[in-house]
Amino acid sequence: VQYVAYGMSALGVYIPYYQGMSHYLPGYDRGADQASDDSVNWKFRKLQTLVMQDYNAYAPDVQRAYLAFERQLSEKQKTMEQEYLKLYKSEPQKAQELLQNFEDKTMQDALNLTDSLTNQVFSKMTHATDMKYHFEGA
């Protein structure tokens, strides 16, 4: 298993990638030097860039959420690995399907959490900007 965090490790979530995966979710294979909504790399980078605007205010929430995700994931990994080893002896194809389903869910859950955190940070930034540059006509 290899653990990968996209972008800055201090503001990233480590996702396990197991040997034997047959595919990644759409978007994991996209990314260039221009931001795009269909790139997983850019989803993580957007959150990290927002957090860097006021690291002390926004980083702790992101780090707590990702740490909780990683801890829960570690327990799920143990369960999946035990089941995988049992299945592999007699049904290697089912074991591979179990592995791929675990990976698909993990990748999607990491993206869902990142999207949620991005909206949370953006909402806090919007409020902070409004307090700093309040416009009475809005």
What would your notes on this structure say?
The structure is a single chain. The protein has 138 residues and is mainly alpha-helical. The chain has one domain. 64% of the residues lie in helices and 4% in strands. The chain is built from three helices and two strands. A two-stranded antiparallel ribbon has the order 1-2. The mean pLDDT is 94. Keywords: Dipeptidase, Hydrolase, Protease. This is Dipeptidase. One of its GO terms (molecular function) is dipeptidase activity.
Which short descriptors sum up this protein?
single chain; about 140 residues; mainly alpha; two-stranded antiparallel sheet; 3 helices; about 5% strand; cysteine-type exopeptidase activity; dipeptidase
Entry summary:
The chain has helices spanning 40-51, 55-90, 92-132; strands spanning 2-4, 15-17.
Q: What's the number of domains?
A: 1
Give the averaged pLDDT, no decimals.
Answer: 94
Secondary structure: number of strands = 2
Instruction: Report the helical percentage.
Output: 55-70%
Uncertain regions spanning at least 5 consecutive residues: none
Q: Name the helix and strand elements from N-terminus to C-terminus, one letter apiece.
A: EEHHH
Main sheet record: 2 strands, antiparallel
Shape: elongated
Separation of termini?
A: 51 Å
Which strand-content bin applies to the residues? Answer: under 5%
Spatial order of the strands forming the largest sheet: 1-2
Classify the secondary structure makeup into a structural class. mainly alpha
Which oligomeric form is depicted?
single chain
Count of helical stretches: 3
What is the CA-atom radius of gyration, in angstroms? 18 Å
